[in-house]
Amino acid sequence: MPGIRGPSDYSQEPPRHPCLQINAKEPFNAEPPRPVLISSYVTPVDFFYKRNHGPIPIVDDIEKYCISITGLIGNPKKLFMNDILKLAKYNITATLQCAGNRRTAMSKIRKVKGVGWGAAAIGNAVWGGAKLADVLELVGVPKLTGTTPSGGKHVEFVSIDKCKEENGGPYKASIPLSQATNPEADVLLAYEMNGEPINRDHGYPLRVVVPGFIGARSVKWLESINIIPEECQGFFMQKDYKMFPPSVNWDNINWSTRRPQMDFPVQCVICSLEDVNVVKHGEITIKGYAVSGGGRGIERVDVSIDGGKTWMEASRYQKTGIPYISDDTSSDKWAWVLFEVTTDIPSISEIVAKAVDTAANVQPENVEVIWNLRGILNTSWHRVHVRVGHSNL
Ligand SMILES: Nc1nc2c(c(=O)[nH]1)N[C@H]1C(S)=C(S)[C@@H](COP(=O)(O)O)O[C@H]1N2
Ligand SMILES: [Mo]
Fold first, then answer.
1. Mutate to test the pocket of ligand 1, among 10, 98, 159, 193 (most ligand atoms within 8 A of CB)
2. CATH class for the domain made up of 267-388
3. Would 293 disulfide with which of 17, 105, 264, 286, CB 3.0-4.6 Å?
4. CA dihedral of 69, 71, 73, 78, whole degrees rounded to 10
5. Where do the CATH 2.60.40.650 domains begin and end in the chain?
6. CA of 218 to the centre of ligand 1 (A)
7. pLDDT (tens digit, 0 to 9) for every residue of the chain, 393 residues total?
8. Per CATH, which fold does 4-257 belong to?
9. Whole-number CA gyration radius for the chain
10. How far, in whole angstroms, is CA 13 from its chain's centroid?
11. Gap from CA of 295 to ligand 1 centroid (Å)
12. Ligand 1 test: best mutation among 53, 235, 374, most atoms within 8 Å of CB?
């Protein structure tokens, strides 16, 4: 492909921060230590989780790099970086969460398939780029289009990386055309992350960012966009990232019975404490993140120090100096909130955190009821065990 290529081995991977916990080396999958996530509202790029399915693509010549837009449209086109840069630039603060976040905890109930992740396969970034709705206008698809005259209903994003799940083909995914052409859905073709050009791990030179959806739909290293009648038939849409009930196992699974997971449910994680923690004295500060999909804000975060018998409400915040009000225009609707509560704790306690979103959606109390064979969307109440004592004993 012009200007960009997907290598077939791992000899030219980019440098990465040594503090990352590596869950798989090749392809490279890593997350930061949990406490890093609450040290700032916007996650520094070095500490942002990295989720890959193949070797990281290489740009040989950015002048030659272009994306082709084809399919059921009147006016197929190739767009160069300069064409994208000429469009209005938007900075959207959005949290990206892998559907496999907290998978390791789910696998403790019963074995699941997939890379093991702790609770930090998530990050919040300021994505800079053009709106997909503006890009599609360049190929003759107007804003707020559900179906093109020739029957296009979905927008497929195709990458250039070589994934073994696709038998060496590229990663791909799609979203509905109605969302892609809705400027308020804030779907971006992003070339910046936190004010810098997106680095190789996160999709240089251009990636899709679909706010409010599981990370799997935000295709990195974009190579082409196709307007198609049905959703993308790729592995990661049809044979992965689907939510099954606990009764489905590898013997009775029928992938076609479920739709690809798109929007994600309400999630909440304590980041200031390890899963088993010894603290020095009786007062602790409990901090973490809470987020919901679909642009739903966080209405409440409840924290318990007695395993869920009694609850107190945590304070929520995004940007310093601006009080967080869910659903208010002053808040970043696609972004997480951080929460905090300071309390005295008994000598031994089980600390629990759970969030409620603006649609009053709540989290399941136990992981058992949402166990699924692919280990996706573990949004059960997050629990940590704390004992007061001396950590050096
Ligand atoms: N081309 C490509 N895009 C991709 C992936 C991939 O492997 N290849 N992984 C997806 C998944 S599952 C997630 S969670 C996010 C991770 O993005 P990040 O590595 O920038 O955090 O990218 C998505 N986009
Ligand atoms: Mo993911």
1. 98
2. mainly beta
3. 264
4. 20
5. 267-388
6. 6
7. 589 999 999 999 999 999 999 999 999 999 999 999 999 999 999 999 999 999 999 999 999 999 999 999 988 999 999 999 999 999 999 999 999 999 999 999 999 999 999 999 999 999 999 999 999 999 999 999 999 999 999 999 999 999 999 999 999 999 999 999 999 999 999 999 999 999 999 999 999 999 999 999 999 999 999 999 999 999 999 999 999 999 999 999 999 999 999 999 999 999 999 888 888 887 899 999 999 999 999 999 999 999 999 999 999 999 999 999 999 999 999 999 999 999 999 999 999 999 999 999 999 999 999 999 999 999 999 999 999 886 555
8. Sulfite Oxidase; Chain A, domain 2 (3.90.420)
9. 21
10. 22
11. 20
12. 53
